[in-house]
Amino acid sequence: MNKQEFSLFCDALESGEIRVAEKIDGKWKVNTSVKESILEGFRIGSLVQMGDFVDKDTVPARNFSPADGFRLVPGGSSVRRGAYISKGVVMMPPAYVNIGAYVDEGTMIDSHALVGSCAQIGKRVHISAASQIGGVLEPVGALPVIVEDDAFIGGNCGIYEGTLVSSRAVIATGVIINSSTAIYDATDGSWIRPDETGRIVVPEGAVVVAGSRPVKKGPGAADGIQIYCPVIVKYRDEKTAGSLQLEDLLR
Q: How many CB atoms are closer than 10 A to CB 59?
């Protein structure tokens, strides 16, 4: 792949013609060739001066116009080349969306939020201030972080290592989820652990808050030490939905 071919590849990513991962027959599938091409773009790029920054010439920041239907509020935000941003998306400053990311219509990306490389964000998602949505560019066969339609990510959250946040789930302020973070479901006493692909799947409509659990072995148990544990306290209902309607007024 040469630089001209990579530029055409980025055009296809930005138009939504191709994407890193997509849901087929109810299951998310990763397009490894797309990830490989993104990595190739970094390899063939040359370092150049970009205003106050220095980066590879193959992956500059994107430019937008009103015709794109994307509200990019002034104040230091940036979207990198090769990221898809749908109409109706709002991005508050400062925030960042990296190459290979896919952000669908009606989503809000709040201040100090990050959408990492290859992350897939659904329709009408709210990513609150200071939250980090990790990407997962490598290994190429691994699914990226995915946040499905109508999910809500509270402030100062971290969603990493291929986690799947299913549709309508609510992740409360300060929750961290990665591949080694088992989630306790307080509604039935079960544990959600990594699936066969090694990722955590937050169930549809789950309301997850930050919690803790006691250490059961060793000196920590005797000393009453607790360790971090996300907890599902309930599943989304009309009251939960009502508390989120304010977001529609901000768009």
A: 21
